[in-house]
Amino acid sequence: MSFVTVDRIREARERIRGVAKITPLVDVSDIAGKPLRLKCESLQPGGAFKIRGAYNMVAQLPEAERRRGVITYSSGNHGQAVAIAARALGVPAVVVMPTTAPRIKIEGAKTFGAQVVFEGTTTLHRQARAEQIAAEQHLTMVPPFDHEWIIEGQGTLGLEILEECEDVGTVLVPIGGGGLISGVAAAIKQIRPDVRVIGVEPAGAASMKHSIDSGEVRTLDQVATIADGLMAVRPGNLNFAHVRQFVDRLVTVEDGEIAAAVRWLFERAKIVAEPSGAATVAAALRSDARYDPTIVAIVSGGNLDPADAPKYLTQS
Q: What CA–CA distance (Å, rounded) separates 211 from 192?
């Protein structure tokens, strides 16, 4: 198994420059009561970090493949990112989403020009449908996490953290299929092996932790969490290998903690985050959390559906 290199991640950074933003690192230490900074990927085009990997991949496709078009499967944020990348490069795009996808993410993908198809409720359901359509229409697949170009693009976030926070001790990274943590950990550990990288999963969808604990990639029978972007029933093979090689530790957070973190971010830090984007903050805010100073938590997405906002932002 080969791992993505820092050189390739740096090449990806040049490729996505001007499309993906260099997002702010916000110091919330005073209100958190501990040295904590938030990397606000919620401010990216499409409202999530996914533009990094999506654009890095679509931009490298041969011209003939671009003309035919691309397809992906996504709970929402990767679909929006592929739509944005495809529109910027003049490429037709199809996105297969779950029937349970938040409306804000559905409308986002459509607004950015993608054709949206609905299929099932799990990663495997929509992947199978996307592969069927790709074969029928001769489209190129842009997978959400299990591809080296996707991992390299997401790794650019790791480079930014090291450059923006020289005293970083621990980086908390959310895990769905594992694309983000694969790239971030590969970048950080190959440059600063002293920095701890900790993956955060919802307790009800901890497919990566289950796989790491088992010593091989495993598929969960079912998943249940409010963090719709972190509901992969199975991590990617490349992602599993990168996590095993570069990640120090995996932790899980309960849905109640995630909901409280969404509210804390909104009320105290004035940051809008969807549940998937708040999972790392939930881990950071635990009273018994023991992380090395300074902590950087990646707020990976801000696509909080207005219809769902009251249940997270209203104190129960």
A: 26
The active-site residue, picked from 39, 50, 105, 209, is 50
At residue 103's C-alpha, the angle toward residues 25 and 269, to 5°, is 25
Angstrom distance (rounded) from CA 134 to CA 73: 11
**Which is more confidently placed, 173 or 124?**
173
Catalytic-labelled residue, pool 74, 182, 211, 300 = 300
What CA–CA distance (Å, rounded) separates 314 from 309? 8
Structure-token match 């992380």, residue found = 291
**Number of Cβ atoms within 10 Å of the Cβ of 210:** 18
Active site residue 300: yes
| pLDDT-derived band at 75, boundaries 50, 70, 90 | confident
Q: Mean pLDDT over residues 48-58, rounded?
A: 98
Query: pLDDT tens across 177-200, in order?
Result: 999 999 999 999 999 999 999 999
Reported as half-sphere exposure (CB side, CA atoms, 13 A), residue 246 has a value of: 34
Instruction: Provide the pLDDT for residue 316.
Output: 54
Domains with residue ranges and CATH for the chain: 6-48+148-313 (3.40.50.1100), 51-141 (3.40.50.1100)
Q: How far are the Cα atoms of 42, 53, 141, 289 from residue 20, in angstroms, in the given order?
A: 12, 10, 21, 32
Residue 311 annotated to the active site: no
pLDDT at 315: 62
- The residue among 230, 237, 270, 221 whose CA lies nearest residue 253 is 230
